[in-house]
Amino acid sequence: MSLERFISNALSPWMKEESGAEKDIVLSTRIRFARNLNDYPFPIISSEHSAETLRSFVSKELTESSESFAGSLELLNMEDLSKNEKTMLVEKHLISPHLAERSTAGAVLLNEKESVSLMVNEEDHLRIQCLFPGFQPEEGLRFANELDDWVESKVTYAFDEKRGFLTSCPTNVGTGMRASVMMHLPALVMTKALNRFLPAINQLGFVVRGIYGEGSEALGNLFQISNQTTLGKSEEDIVEDLQGIVLQIIEQEHEARRSVLKTSRIQIEDRIFRSYGILSNSRIIETKEAAKRLSDVKLGIDLDLINDIKGNILNELMILMQPGFLQQYADQPLEAKERDVRRAALIRERMKIEPR
């Protein structure tokens, strides 16, 4: 494997799998563990030499004997990548923006399916991330625990009997786990019902963020729902609570879709097919508008109003139309207006592929 493999396709192999429930609403499930190693200063206070020593140790331990359930892991050092290559890995959710900004000693280990990402020297020594299509919180936790146990057999974690896993940020102390799902909620946004749920979700110890996590926008009616509490609850309890909240949101989204179809069918059809027409014919389109129109088309597919386009077009084009991928395919840096032109051309071509 090489870097080219990880940036040549917008859709990671795991995103193409048919497994996973509720895929019309839940695009993906992610389990992430924050871990630090004993005998090394945490990244926020470590020297460059210490960080490089840790990276060398971790990469050697984890690449030489990758277990079969994870697949072989390939190391990518951040300083070996261009700014745009790192941007593309962020756009695919394979690394975090924080890791992309590291100038030295940052790295990521990726498996062939791109479903496993082990970030080195991010905010913590290790960020162990596992990705799954659709709604699979229990399966995700089982796999992530197996991977975590394997990593722990190679290194010694910083762990306290009372506090649990020790992390750079106090909000991660305890299990060190973030369980999250990416949800497409156009009908709840359309009916303004989502705003009513947000306070209740927050009170239960969960948070709703945009597509790239903390500080990001909810483009294309895509929302990331994850736990905020890591201390005082077991991993199983966190996943169980997340599952309960998400199932309720799924039901509310289904109900909102049925309601708008019943009360405003012609308006919804008009909105969906206008967006389909704009995406199929526009010559210039900005990111926000493209995301909004793609969300409409995805809704049309899920409501069986559009039948000749695959349902994962939203996943694919939300990545392909980002600045990193647009500049990669253009093979040159692009100004914002140039990206708008390229984005429109790319979407036009993609929309024509399946109907023809």
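The record above closes out task 2.4. Task 2.5 opens with a second protein, given below.
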Amino acid sequence: MSSPTSFTLPDLVSHCTFPLRVNPSCSPIARASEEWLLAAANHTPKKRAAFMGLKAGELTAACYPDADPQHLRVCDDFMNYLFNLDDWLDEFDVEGTVGMERCCVDAMRDPVGYETDKRAGVMTKSFFGRLVQTAGPGCRDRFIYSMELFFCAVAQQAYDRASGVTPDLESYITVRRDTSGCKPCFQLIEYAGGFDLPDEVVDHPLIRSLEEATNDLVTWSNDIFSYNVEQSRNDTHNMIAVVMQQKGYNLQEAVDFVGECCRASIERFEMDRQQLPSWGPDVDRDVEMYVDGLQNWIVGSLHWSFDSERYFGKVGHQIKKHRTVELLPKRTDCLN
């Protein structure tokens, strides 16, 4: 049987009926944040060009549409930082990942006093030093903890990559919920909104379920959108690759399976939202803002994936319409 040359994306954009809203300060804040990242990261011309096609500021503006310019800028800087960190960590082994975690987390714990000349540490001190000026203590501590989970999961991913291991689906989903970087981004909903959810809300099973459903949609849809680029470099840390190996599906069957999981996560989100209890008018107002923020992440990430050049180059808008993806050839410099 011949290998496939293309696959069809599930129509997740049409399935998601949430309104897409964009922060009115998008463009000037996005451009300023890009300059901040480029000044600190010291990219090669090739990486600089790739970064400019990322358009992380446009994603941030869709995920935090009501943030004022000051808070949006911190969210923008973190988003650019996170994508950049993810790309750096792709080149690291387990030991390198642990070293990066130590530097970044120490900078978050003491953004004023911690001294480092490492680029990631300097960027961490910059954005986090501004974040803690207005973030509540619960939001701040949860942000740091979620970043620790991110680094731990990336280290596991690095170990699997080095060992040539493709994890089973259950193990993959568990790790992917942290490698996605969604959890610290969800803490920024509180930061951007100027509230700090109490522990009894944060720990409530329905709030946890709403966060998980959002994380799953963002993460699994990203696996669909990024699959073509990742398969070209022989990267198996992708839900489609895991499903193909574990279930014996062909490529289109695996794409359709992951697409159905994405649709189910949106339906799970809606069902959980309808069952939320009341914590009193003041807390309920903050909870509503938080859940709306999760909703913004769902719809914003779906649309941005076609606006960015990270997954589909300069033809994302066309692919958004016809949904056919032509497979890229394998890169010989990435073959195991």
